[in-house]
């Protein structure tokens, strides 16, 4: 007889067949009953204890967007009602959505950290009062900044370069003040930008052609530029057709809304001023710096071998001194001072012709070190992080370039010409100066964003349509992979590297031929309301968890996003559900969709569109 049951600690025993069968049957029934009882008890307790914190209706979490047709979304990944409640438990104490009211119309052009009223409290010496001075936490607005009555969607690029709606930026001051210089004209319900500037009344295009006769603007060696006191950014606007992208900046000053006009035209710009703090860019960022009627110390942000272009007083003073209402002696002394400063910076005078003078920064400091043994003013800066530029005090010293082995070597590494440099390994990475970012990391990140941007365009088909978006913001750019995959579209991307990020990668972004700036999202950005058509945020809310309020970041996004502008937020689903509730309170139309790798990924994406609304019409 076969052994029916075996316990290792005992010997087999002989038992009769019938009692054995009855015993097995009783055991089976008992075990089945106990298992079933425990299972149903556990299910009852679990559903009872979690019932309250799992009440998140799909109408709260997912809304179908008209601009995201379902035919463009994989039916296996996304449906009109995405239900996360069986996978994720979110503690929601109050199901009521907090509604954010409209701000008063006086805040229509509110720039929190460059508020003209707040600036009056600060020192006027060295223009410190025009630097960033952000509101305290108790001063933060908890309302939605309105667009002016009559606001319309901007003209599509490249038409927007030349025309803007008056209702969007209702300021006529510059049309009078700069009429002779052809900055801007008022025509009916529109502004027209003839392309003129203070030193190029005949147009920026011709002015750039004149510069192109002196330095090569066509071979791709010059890609990134910076323009200060930019006016309405005509210089930057006309460089774009030459595959050169300029960061234009100017303070919020008596020339009301000049940066706002630049952004309305679809040209990269920020509010900014050189006073007591470094510009918010890494060292060696720009291939070319432009300064019309100004004197700016460009030594740090200009790339080795980069060009500094100066036009306006005192250049060509012998011809213009009467028109400038200054004496010959005064202007001659000013030009001599510039020449001496450039020499002490080890810059060489490249060329001066007609109204334009150009200096070139050295490729390295090998010869400069020898020269400075006799010329010690300004001194070389002590060892420091030259890329640190967020509220960093300007020092009167010459920023050291990276060490080189020969006079022919470019400090910091040689850059490929555009467009090859976009995908080449950036020198900061190949030289190992960016912590934890290797060539392999760079290449994997490039492939990752190629796939992600393709998925974005599948979910939101308008992202691939020319003209729908122009001004784009990436709130956490890392290596610039998102922007790199949009370079063939008629858009530009402002790449933000948060100052709280683990690794400072903004220098890499510039070495790729892209532009950006530093920013802490616990503060407002140095830009006007309604700047961007599309905002992309990768893991931003995870980064700022327990640093500042999610609500305040979302209100800032609402301020800088245009009416009917779009948002793509990528984050953990539990965070996105909280973001979604705030988006509902801001009256955005939003939808949570699956990760590009499928529904099993806990990271999800929120696509949203800001609703169109404006301040009411003025009553008599």
Automatic annotation (TrEMBL):
One of its GO terms (cellular component) is endosome. Belongs to the methyltransferase superfamily. It is an enzyme of class 2 (transferase). This is Methyltransferase. It comes from the Eukaryota. It holds the Pfam family Methyltransf_29. It is a single-pass membrane protein; Single-pass type II membrane protein. The keyword Transmembrane helix applies. Keywords: Glycoprotein, Membrane, Methyltransferase, Signal-anchor, Transferase, Transmembrane, Transmembrane helix. Gene3D superfamilies: Vaccinia Virus protein VP39. It comes from Anisodus acutangulus. One of its GO terms (biological process) is methylation. Its EC number is 2.1.1.-. It is found in: Endomembrane system; Membrane. The chain crosses the membrane at residues 25-44. InterPro entries: Put_SAM_MeTrfase, SAM-dependent_MTases_sf. Its main location: membrane. GO terms for molecular function: methyltransferase activity.
């Amino acid at each position: 007889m076969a052994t029916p049951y075996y316990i290792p600690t005992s010997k087999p025993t002989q038992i009769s067949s019938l009692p054995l069968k009855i015993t097995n049957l009783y055991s089976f029934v008992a075990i089945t009953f106990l298992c079933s009882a425990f299972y149903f008890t556990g299910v009852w307790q679990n559903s009872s204890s979690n019932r309250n914190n799992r009440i998140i209706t799909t109408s709260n979490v997912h809304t179908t967007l008209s601009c995201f047709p379902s035919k463009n979304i994989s039916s296996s990944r996304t449906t009109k009602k995405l239900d996360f409640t069986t996978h994720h438990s979110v503690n929601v104490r109050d199901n009521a959505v907090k509604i954010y009211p409209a701000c008063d119309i006086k805040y229509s052009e509110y720039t929190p950290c460059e508020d003209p009223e707040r600036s009056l409290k600060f020192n006027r010496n060295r223009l410190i009062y025009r630097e960033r001075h952000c509101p305290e936490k108790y001063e933060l607005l908890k309302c939605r900044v309105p667009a002016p009555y009559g606001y319309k969607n901007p003209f599509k690029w490249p038409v927007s370069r030349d025309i803007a709606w008056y209702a969007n930026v209702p300021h006529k001051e510059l049309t009078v003040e700069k009429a002779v210089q052809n900055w801007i004209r008022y025509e009916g319900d529109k502004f027209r930008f003839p392309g003129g500037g203070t030193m190029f009344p005949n147009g920026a295009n011709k002015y750039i052609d004149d510069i192109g006769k002196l330095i090569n603007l066509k071979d791709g060696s010059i890609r990134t530029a910076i323009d200060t006191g930019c006016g309405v950014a005509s210089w930057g606007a006309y460089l774009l057709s030459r595959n050169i992208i300029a960061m234009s900046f100017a303070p919020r000053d008596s020339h009301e809304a000049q940066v706002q006009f630049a952004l309305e035209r679809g040209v990269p710009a920020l509010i900014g001023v050189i006073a007591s703090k470094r510009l918010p860019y890494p060292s060696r960022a720009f291939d070319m710096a432009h300064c019309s009627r100004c004197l700016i110390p460009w030594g740090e942000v200009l790339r080795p071998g980069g060009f500094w272009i100066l036009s306006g007083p005192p250049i060509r003073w012998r011809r213009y001194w009467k028109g400038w209402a200054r004496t010959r002696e005064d202007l001659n002394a000013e030009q001599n001072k510039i020449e001496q400063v450039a020499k002490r910076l080890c810059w060489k005078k490249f060329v001066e012709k007609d109204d334009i003078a150009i200096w070139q920064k050295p490729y390295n400091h090998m010869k400069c070190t020898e020269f400075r043994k006799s010329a010690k003013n300004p001194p070389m800066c002590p060892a420091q992080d030259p890329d640190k530029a967020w509220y960093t005090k300007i020092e009167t010293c010459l920023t050291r370039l990276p060490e080189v082995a020969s006079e022919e070597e470019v400090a910091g590494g040689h850059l490929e010409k555009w467009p090859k440099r976009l995908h080449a390994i950036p020198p900061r990475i190949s030289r190992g100066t960016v912590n934890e970012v290797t060539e392999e990391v760079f290449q994997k990140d490039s492939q990752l964003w190629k796939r992600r941007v393709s998925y974005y365009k599948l979910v939101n088909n308008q992202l691939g349509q020319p003209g729908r978006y122009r001004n784009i913001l990436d709130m956490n750019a890392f290596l610039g992979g998102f922007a790199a995959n949009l370079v063939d579209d008629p858009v530009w991307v402002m790449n933000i590297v948060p100052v709280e990020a683990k690794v400072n990668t903004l220098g890499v972004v510039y070495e790729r031929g892209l532009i950006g700036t530093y920013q802490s999202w616990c503060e407002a950005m140095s830009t006007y309301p309604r700047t961007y058509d599309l905002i992309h945020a990768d893991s931003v809310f995870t980064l700022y968890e327990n640093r500042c309020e999610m609500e305040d970041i979302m209100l800032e996004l609402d301020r800088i996003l245009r009416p009917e502008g779009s948002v793509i937020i990528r984050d953990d689903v539990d965070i996105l559900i909280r973001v979604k509730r705030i988006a509902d309170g801001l009256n955005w139309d939003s939808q949570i969709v699956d990760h590009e790798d499928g529904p099993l990924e806990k990271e999800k994406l929120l696509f949203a569109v800001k609703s169109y609304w404006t301040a009411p019409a003025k009553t008599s």
